[in-house]
Amino acid sequence: MDLRPVTLVDLSHVIEHGLVTYPGLPAPMITPHLTRDDSRSVYAPGTEFAIDSITMVGNTGTYIDSPFHRYPDGADLAGLDLARLVHVPAVVVDCRGTGRRGIAARDLAEVDVQHRAVLLLTGWDRHFATNRYGIDAPYLTEEGAMALAEAAAGLVGIDSVNIDDAVPNGPRPAHSVLLAAGIPIIEHLTGLDRLPATGSFFTALPPRIRGFGTFPVRAFADVP
Question: Which of 167, 175, 178, 208 has most Cβ atoms within 10 angstroms of its Cβ?
C-alpha cells in the first residue's frame, strides 16, 4: 500500500440556502423534513436525527455538465465514465494576465492535455456569489474548445461563471464542442491557484442519476 502523504485541496464552493450560483437561476432552498425535536417521538429515548430537504437546479455550486446537458442522446450523470472523473492527472493553465476574456487555442498550445483534467485558472472565482460574477467573465473560445477536443482532453474545468461567453440568447460553442466529444465540463471551480501547473490529480463526482445532465460535485485535487 502506498502511504506517501498527499495534500488534498478542495476546489468546490460551499452550497447553502439562498446561494446564487448562476445569475438568473433560482437559489437552493434547504428546509427541514424532520427536525431533531420532532424525531425524538420517532426513535428511542436519547436518539435523535435531522432529515433535511434541498430544492435546487442542477446548476448549483461547483457542478459538472455531462453530454446529456447539451445533447439528448449524450451520456447522462449515470452514464459518465469514472475514469474521466477520478484521480485524473491534472494540468492547470494559468489564463490570468492575458488582457483577453477569451481563452484561445494559442493559450493551450504548449500544454499536454491528452487524457488530462484541464483546469483553466482565470481568478474569476473571487467574484463568486456577487453581482460582478456574471459580468464580462472569462471563457473558453470555440477554437480553444476545438483544440482541447482534438487533443483528447479528459475533462475541462474553469473557475468562471460559464465555460462559454454567456451572452443572452448567444451560442454556446465550447459546451457544444466539448460535450459532443464526450468531454465533461466542470464550472465554478475555486482555488485553482493553490495547485501546481502539473503533478496533481483531480477528482469530481456527481451522484449517479439517470436522465439528468448537471449536478453539484465535490471537486478536489490531491497533490503528492
Answer: 178
Sort strands 117-121 and 155-158 into parallel, antiparallel or unpaired.
Answer: parallel
The domain spanning residue 131 has which CATH number? 3.50.30.50
Q: Is 28 inside any structural domain?
A: no
Pairing state between β 139-140 and 102-103:
parallel
Beta bridge partners of 215: 64
Whole-model pTM?
0.95
* Domain count across the chain: 1
> Can you tell me the distance from the alpha carbon of 75 to that of 66, in angstroms, rounded to the nearest whole number?
6
Specify the residue for cell string 445532465: 213
* pLDDT, position 1: 55
Burial bucket for residue 63 (CB in 10 Å: 0-12, 13-18, 19+): buried
Would you state the pLDDT for residue 3? 61
> Does 45 map to a domain?
no
Would 174 be classed as within a structural domain? yes
pLDDT at 5: 75
Instruction: Identify the pLDDT of residue 2.
Output: 60
Grid cell of 155 as nine digits: 475533462
Q: Which three three-digit cell numbers place residue 122?
A: 482565470
Distance CA 224, CA 203 (A): 14
- Residue in 146, 96, 87, 86 with CA at minimum distance from that of residue 120: 96
For the chain, which residues score pLDDT lower than 70? 1-4
